[in-house]
Amino acid sequence: MLTFDLVLVGFGNVGRRFVRLLEERREELNGAHRLAWRVIALATGRHGQALNLEGLDAVKAAEHLESGGRLDDLGSRLHVASGMDFIRHVCRSAEAGRHTAPLHPLVVVETTVLDVGSGQPATDHVRAALQAGAHVVTANKGPVAFAYAELDALARSACRSFLFEGAVMDGIPIFNLARATLPAVRINGLRGVVNSTTNYIITAMENGREFDESLAEMQASGIAEADASLDVDGWDAAAKTAALANVLMGARLTPRTVQRTGIGALTGVEVRAAVTRGRRIKLVSRVGRRGNEVVARVGPEELPEHDLLATLRDQQNALVLETDLLGDFSIVQLGGGLTQTAYALLADLAELRRRLSSTESRPLQPRLP
Predict the structure, then answer these.
(1) Which residue of 60, 85, 179, 231 is most buried, as measured by CB atoms within 10 A?
(2) Could you report the per-residue pLDDT of 303-323, keeping only the tens digit for each?
(3) Is 272 exposed, middle or buried (0-12, 13-18, 19+ CB in 10 A)?
(4) What is the DSSP letter of 120?
(5) What's phi and psi for 89, nearest 5 deg?
(6) Between 235-249 and 141-157, two packed helices, what is the crossing angle to 10 degrees?
(7) Dihedral of alpha carbons 55, 61, 62, 63, sign
């Protein structure tokens, strides 16, 4: 059995669902995967921090936060200014305690809120964790969309893993699919619908509602944020597009270098008129090669109704990969949400367990700066 010491940076909806999912799947993870864990540290931006090297009850911590409490009420009271400093402090504390207790592999689980204009603070969190000798699992698009090449190289040089399956399309295994099952295949391009909120709005307009009404419905259901501009203006799709291009095609894009047009100017009249012509409008992400350059764009497109992307309804997403040896093939997500994103974190832990299986008797130590 290999035990991970988990450091959760960000403990919002995804983080709390993740720790509950770990408990729900404890028996299977312990048995089939020989994987165990304990949460030793929690950090949030507004609700405090907690550290206990012998382990925190993360499910109770989630309940405590949801009832209005603070993490400062649990474990050691910390006064660490930034997420980076928190990560360094926890890694040093774990190293200092290794003489009195076994040191398990440290895994920083990063789920903070993304600033899509900079990729922060998540990118700095990932960098600090790798530099301090921890593995990293994240559902955050920022580090992959803004600094994938740098962070991947840093992880390799530190003999650590940087895993991010939840960054695009929740728990659908896009990155693991390419990594594990497409040896010697070159991905020449991709296209997809990767933002659920905009697809739901467009579908609602096809059914007779107008843009503002459709958006308000999404916000009332909790699917869209009160400030839905990241979705509506195409920033979320641009970040996911950059992440896909960087990992699958070796690009060096950021959301700001993806040509972007949102759906804010669309009207119900336009959307329904397309349907009468046997076509459907979708917010489409496209990536292709132009010589040695990888180029990407996001914008509304009118597609033939028989096109796979045109058939997607409500919150469904899909990605079509264009390859040299296998031709085009697609991955379709018929439904996503909180559990699926949390599952991506769990799946990355299982992948990390697989990678470390040959060193189970020699747990890796933090490499402090």
Answers:
(1) 231
(2) 999 999 999 999 899 999 999
(3) middle
(4) B
(5) -65, -45
(6) 30
(7) positive
**The pair of three-digit structure tokens given for residue 33, joined into one six-digit string:** 């995967």
Scored b (16 or more CB within 10 A) or e, 89-115 reads: bbbebbbeeeeeeebbbbbbbbbbebe
**Angle 185-320-329 (CA atoms, 0-180°, nearest 5)?**
55
At residue 139, does pLDDT exceed 60?
Answer: yes
> What does the buried/exposed string (b/e) look like for 151-175 if buried means 16 or more CB atoms within 10 Å of the residue's CB?
bbebbeebebbbbbbbbbbbbbbbb
* DSSP H stretches of helix in the chain: 13-24, 26-32, 58-66, 83-96, 122-131, 141-157, 174-181, 196-206, 211-220, 229-232, 235-249, 268-276, 338-356
Global pTM value: 0.91
Q: How do residues 86-109 score in pLDDT, each as one tens digit?
A: 999 898 888 876 655 567 899 999
Instruction: Please enumerate in sequence order all residues whose Cβ is within 8 A of that of 86, keeping only pairs 6 or more positions apart, or say none.
Output: 9, 41, 43, 49, 78, 80
* Bond prior to 183 in cis (omega within 30° of 0): no
3-state secondary structure of 306: coil
Half-sphere exposure for 314 (CA within 13 Å, toward CB): 7
Given a contact cutoff of 8 angstroms between Cβ atoms, the answer to whether 300 and 186 are in contact is no
In percent, the amount of the chain with pLDDT more than 70 equals 92
Is 282 annotated as catalytic?
Answer: no
Question: 60, 141, 240, 282: which is the annotated catalytic residue?
Answer: 240
Q: Are 271 and 202 in contact (CB under 8 A)?
A: yes
Q: For 310, which DSSP code?
A: G
> If pLDDT is split at 50, 70 and 90, which confidence band does 16 have?
very high
Instruction: Answer whether 282's CB lies under 8 Å from 194's CB.
Output: no
Give the three-state DSSP class for 221. coil
